[in-house]
Each structure stands twice: as structure tokens, then as C-alpha cells.
Amino acid sequence: MCLSILMIARQNLYSSPGGDTVQIDMTAKYLRRLGISITIYTQHAEVVDFDQFDLLHFFNIIRPDDILPFIEKTNTPFVVSTIYVDYAEYEKANRKGILTALKLFDADQVEYIKAIGRYVKNGTKIKSGYYLWRGHNKAIRKILEKASLLLPNSESEYKRLIERYPTKTDYRTIVNAVDIESFNDSIGEDSKYTNHVLCVGRIEGRKNQLNLIKALLDTKLELTIIGKPSPNHLIYYQKCKQTAQNASNIKFLEHVTHKELATIFKAAKVHVLPSWFETTGLSSLEAAIMDCNLVITPKGDTQEYFGDMVFYCEPDNIQSIRNAVLSAYDAPVNPQLKRHVLTNYTWQKAAEQTLLAYKEVLTK
């Protein structure tokens, strides 16, 4: 039986790429190799013939208005890769000016206000009447109740999800992963980045590049920040650039190909994600199998993935970031970390887990 799956993602999946972009593309790539027909859909204004698909696969439970319009129109079974993040600590610590008022609201209310703000600022319409009138929390609960299966990236993600939105819907953990065809030992290294410290990811307040810059300003370590600024964080990006403008040891690269990134990882010594929250940090997995030591936030699901094989730092403490990076830089490469990632976190494994979940739903 050849299964036909419709993967439905946010509209700006490719214009504003993030970790979910990689997760969707790589899962689709390896599922296709297993003989599954995958269609990735982001054009939410188009009419979809759901009857041609055996199953719908949604992503990002935190954006329920991207999911509700579809499940309101069809009885086709669906699963959800929840990718459930919690930015409450970041929001409380970093909202300034008029946005300080958001501290008065809970996380669901803040997300609802942000959805209204996207409509006012960018013309991003709210598509579901249920979401508009019932709000963020009830919208998520409705999706969880109707889903055939939930697919979090870790046990800790699932526990965080049901703590806020209790549900009896069953789940299967699907690992986040690395593409070993793009990142492996056969890759040569780019000598321009020998022993550099890297930070790879979209530049935005939640990723905390500004505190990383401040932590390494007066060191001799070469820091290279790789990533595009988030469209809604351009002021933050400019602040990062201004803070580093007189620092000869810090530079920015907006975009590199996966092939180029692999050669940079191979040459570098340390990769840092001092984020306010990470489900895992895909770039950390990639850096790990290219023999980088890792510095990463403990906030989120990182400890479930990396255990005691990495160096942790507190995102709000510049000295903590500095100390962790210096320790990672001075430490030898940990071969156990690489073996751990290659054994447990490949996209082939993720695709196999996903296919088992699909079959479980369709044979009920």
C-alpha cells in the first residue's frame, strides 16, 4: 500500500525558514525513500481535495489558526507534530516599552494578541472563526482532542504540552535529527573557520545572540554568527551588529548552503545556542557529528537529547555564557556525543518512527 500524506505547514515556512522547515523537508525526504507519497502544503488560500490523501500531518501546535480551518472542513484523520515551545520566560524578561503590558497576560493570551498584531501589521488574516471567538487556549485544546495521534520530539515536550493542555490523545515520540548525507566525516573543512566558535540559527531575541556577543567581546575567541534575521526582529539584529561593530573577533554570515555549513562546522571548535528555549536545536545536532563541542541552553528539551555530554549556560547570565564557551573551547572533543547523535538522531530513524505512527493511525 502506497500511503499519500499531506503535510500542512505555516504559510511563511520558506520565506522565514526555521527549525520546523528543516524538520518538514527532511522528514518528507526520507519518507519518500520509504515509498510514501508526500505533499507539502503552505498555500492556505487554495482549495484542497482532502479525499486524495490518506492522512494529514500538521506542524506547530502553537499556531492553531493554521490548523483549525483544515480540520473544520474534513474528516480525514490527522496527526500533529506539536513542536510545542514555551517562550513565557523570554517574553517576561525581554518585553520593553509598550510591549511591557504583555507581561500582564498569560502565554495563551499573549499568543492571541500576537495573532491579532500580525493581522494589523502584516495583513495575516485570522482564518478560523473558532480561533477568533474562542481564543488560543481553547483552539489548541480542540485540535488536541480531534487529533488521531500527537508526535512530539521528546518526552519532555509532551509532558510540557499536557501540563498546560491536558488531553487523553495518545502520542508517539519522533526524534529531531541530522542529515548524515550532508554532515559526515567525508566533508573537508573550511580553514577560514579553524577553531572558531559558531552560532547557527535565525537571529532573534529568543535565540539570544546579543548576550553571546557581549560574552565574547573582550576575548580572543573568533565568533561567527550564521543566520538571517527574523523579519520581526530587525531592530534586535541591528543591535547585535552595532554591539559587535568594533570587535574584530566577531562576524556575521546571513546565509550559507548546507554544503558550506558542513565545512565550517568541520573546522570549528565550539557551537553555541544560548537560547531562552530550545526543543533540541537542530544546528547543535549537526555540529555534534562534525566534532564540535556544544554549549547550549538547559531550557527546553536539550537535556533529554544531550545529557551530560555538552556544556550548559544560562541565557540571562553573560558570565555563564562566557564560562561555558571557554570551558568548551578548552576541552577535547567528546567522541561519545557524536556516537550518541549518530545512533539515536538521524532523519532515517525519524522517518521510520513517523511511518510507524502513520500506520498505527490508519489501522485503528
Explained architecture:
The protein is of the alpha/beta class and 364 residues long. 41% of the residues lie in helices and 12% in strands. It has a six-stranded parallel β-sheet with strand order 8-7-6-9-10-11, sandwiched between helices. A five-stranded parallel β-sheet has the order 2-1-3-4-5, with helices on one face. Strand 3, helix 2 and strand 4 (78-81) form a beta-alpha-beta unit. Helix 1 packs across helix 15 (347-362), helix 8 (209-216) runs parallel beside helix 9 and helix 8 (209-216) packs across helix 13 (318-330). The chain is globular and about 60 Å long. The model has no long low-confidence stretch (mean pLDDT 91).
**What shape does the CA trace take?**
globular
Spatial gap, N to C terminus: 16 Å
Strand order of the biggest β-sheet: 8-7-6-9-10-11
Helix content: 40-55%
What string gives the helices and strands in order? EHEEHEHHHHEHEHEHEHEHEHEHHH
- Number of helical segments with 4 or more residues: 15
Low-pLDDT residue spans? none
Strand content: 5-15%
Major sheet size, sense and barrel closure: 6 strands, parallel
Output the radius of gyration. Answer: 21 Å
- How would you classify the helix and strand content by structural class? alpha/beta
Number of strands: 11
Descriptive labels:
globular; 364 residues; alpha/beta
Q: What's the helix and strand layout?
A:
Layout: E1 4-8, H1 19-33, E2 37-41, E3 55-59, H2 68-71, E4 78-81, H3 88-94, H4 107-122, H5 129-134, H6 136-146, E5 149-150, H7 155-164, E6 197-200, H8 209-216, E7 223-226, H9 234-244, E8 250-253, H10 258-267, E9 270-273, H11 282-289, E10 293-296, H12 302-306, E11 311-312, H13 318-330, H14 335-344, H15 347-362
Parallel strand pairs: 1-2, 1-3, 3-4, 4-5, 6-7, 6-9, 7-8, 9-10, 10-11
Helix pairs in contact: 1-15, 8-9, 8-13
